[in-house]
Amino acid sequence: MARYTGPRNRLARREGTDLGLKTVGSSSHASLLRRMKILPGQHGQKGRRKASDYARQLREKQKMRRIYGVLERQFKKYFEQASRDKANTGEVLLTLLERRLDNVVYRLGLAPTRACARQYVSHGHILVNGKKVNIPSFLVESDMTITPKQKILETPVVKKLLEEKNPTIPAWLARKGPVGKVVRMPQKEDVVDEINEQLIIEFYSR
Fold this sequence. Notes:
Blueprint: H1 8-15, H2 27-35, H3 53-68, H4 72-83, H5 89-98, H6 101-107, H7 114-122, E1 126-128, E2 131-132, E3 145-148, H8 150-153, H9 156-162, E4 173-176, E5 179-182, H10 197-204
Helix pairs in contact: 3-10, 4-5, 5-10, 6-7
């Protein structure tokens, strides 16, 4: 399945929640918030029906996949990996996605969206422990340091992000200036997005 390249606000409206696909404060993001409850398509709200169990499970899976920007095949592999772990499958799935390097760059406040963070990583602008890593799905470990190259530090969008006095950074990460560090492995409580992982487990258990 190819990566979706259409209007990002359409995806968020389909899931009924802000997926973090647009830069906060932009006119596009403001437009999304105004139209969040209106389903995309010709019939809008008229097309909304009471969802079946399967539909709710599917929508939750699609929402989580779109939040983290992973393709269907990738997402299924994450689920299969999580299901082999002795710990809670849903929680392991969440932490695997949180540990993706593109997500970490976004969570550290070094990119306005995950899509932008993914681009930074893919283009080789992010260093992990001083070495270039250009794989967005790279999974970070405790004590790793994440450093953006000077080239992206000079871009207006990153300069503005770094000027924020009180950036919202999850407890499992830390940042001093532009340099981030993985303090510990993420836990379910560190995930700020509203995700019902049990519905996703039910979807793949059908």
